[in-house]
Write a structure and sequence with these properties.
Largest interface: A-B, 44 and 42 residues
Order of helices and strands of chain A: EHEHEHEHEEEHEHEHEHHE
Shape of chain A: globular
Helix content of chain A: 25-40%
Number of strands of chain A: 11
Radius of gyration of chain A: 16 Å
Oligomer: homodimer
Distance between the termini of chain A: 36 Å
Strand order of the largest sheet of chain A: 3-2-1-4-5-8-9-10
Number of helices of chain A: 9
Chain lengths: 210, 210
């Protein structure tokens, strides 16, 4: 399928080629393609488009932007989000007061819900935000199966994301129900950051054990 | 050692006899012992004292009260907390707006830190708040080892808690460092509640896999 990956930081740079390797038709969205292409070390061969154009014709749009910029970026994309499945992997982290980070969202809201409210005709699914981007596309980086989650209000949109997760190698996928469960998924991040500091690696995840 | 368990709800009723079975000298603290003893179904043989007296002579004080009441209860205990290891297993959950719950603390604070600030001469350790109380005292309720955490500013106090965790059967204990890491541990709860709803059980936990 046609996938637009918005954001050319570490997350976008990792997701886009992984989706392309799975056989998808991938376009990267960025603020200014010329600036991104001129970046030291930029070596992705995938098409680069301004945010305003990247989502045109995409069946799946992936928000891989910095959580603090996501709402602004998606406002630029605007009408092209109508009807689209919008996979939100971003986190609204605020490191301005040091560690542990806090979230920019209040406790009764989430970035995913803010995006859904701003784009009511899109179909937002929160997933993959609970792991580092290298693990997103290669769950075998940790030993055995570990868990990822999906949350969203549209069952068909979640099915599209679950198919993609399966293709990436995720076998333990828990559907938490409505998009409001994204609050818990985003609130996991302060603990994730604490674990990263303690373990000295980003190659870890949680496994839900019963 | 002498352990004072503050709170006679499900958590206190589960922790206190488990500590007694390990050979500790356990006292339960409650608002009004006569009222607690008269409660339908109350069958614990352990000493019941008013909060004001329960912590006298205790080496370890356990905050097993409802997170919304914890600061008030601990204010009653007052001076008896000086120098004590204070194991905080409570969560500042707010269910007043339905599910998912939010937290009563802002994102750059935690109940554990509020308790530490209110009682600077106590030595607060956050632990066990990430699992259901039955699992707290019997980690074998889930398959294989799962993970619990400790966070606190006093290494000796953490060692006391780690010994107790070991005696309860916890083998995978991760020390997240300073008490500020309690923020991440408390922010795990909205995801925990979502998992409880999805899985239909409280017998689950996370395992950190690398």
């Amino acid at each position: 399928m046609r996938i637009a990956v918005l954001g050319t930081g570490m997350v976008g740079q990792t997701l886009a080629p992984a989706f392309a390797r799975l056989g998808h038709d991938v376009v990267l969205g960025t603020r200014d393609p010329a600036v991104t292409r001129a970046r030291d070390g930029w070596d992705l061969e995938l098409p680069l488009r301004p945010f305003e154009e990247a989502a045109d014709g995409a069946e799946l749009v992936v928000n891989a932007t910095d959580g603090r910029a996501s709402l602004d970026v998606l406002a630029r994309v605007g009408a092209a989000l109508r009807g689209r499945v919008l996979l939100d992997v971003a986190n609204p982290l605020d490191f301005s007061r040091g560690l542990p980070p806090s979230l920019t969202t209040p406790g009764d809201d989430s970035l995913a819900e803010q995006i859904q409210r701003a784009h009511p005709e899109s179909r937002v699914v929160k997933s993959l935000n609970t792991v580092n981007c290298k693990l997103m596309v290669d769950p075998s980086r940790v030993s055995g199966d570990s868990t990822v989650f999906v949350a969203g209000d549209d069952p068909e949109a979640k099915a599209v994301v679950r198919d993609l997760l399966g293709a990436l190698g995720w076998r333990d996928v828990i559907d938490l129900g409505a998009l409001s469960a994204a609050r818990g998924l985003e609130m996991w991040l302060p603990l994730w950051v604490g674990l990263m500091s303690t373990l000295g690696t980003t190659d870890f995840n949680l496994r839900v054990v019963r």
